[in-house]
Design a protein that fits this description.
Layout lengths: L4 H36 L4 E8 L3 E8 L5 H11 L1 H4 L3 E7 L4 H20 L3 H13 L3 E7 L3 E8 L2 E8 L12
Parallel strand pairs: 2-3
Antiparallel strand pairs: 1-2, 4-5, 5-6
Helix pairs in contact: 4-5
Amino acid sequence: MRLKWIPTVVTAVITAALLFGGWYIYQSTAVEKPFEKLVSGIDGVQSVQSSIDRNAISVKLQLKPEADIQNVVHEIKDKGESVIGGRELKLSFESASSGKLEKLWSSVLFQIAESMEKREYSGIIEAMDKLQQQNSGLQIKTGIDDSNVYITMLDGATSKYIVLPRFPATIGAWSHA
């Protein structure tokens, strides 16, 4: 029996297109869109874009100025648990930042990094309080939980949101013990 190549190749291409097209439509309509709708319903979220793959969920958020960033992150993790599952959640925040806020943030970045490295998180609050006292009109909110440190900087209509990951202390064993 002799195979006809053209119908075989055409059938394979059509089958692959239907399978991958069906998977893409399912991923878009049954997973990504409901997840984006769920996240956009969280208080303080202005807009959301997500990308979901096998190992990670990437979410770009634009928050309203009055948003509580810590609450937003917790609600995404709680409400989206069925979609997130065992995937890594990668959040990025787009904000209407300004050159002034970026400059102020970079002025305390060394102190923040040092506090994070030493796991002395009260140093972050002290640095941000000092920065707020030195700059009238600047509002700073800080928060912490078991996995992140949250910083919100507001200056009029501009804002900057920062989420710094905390790494748990590790217990080491000495080789001579």
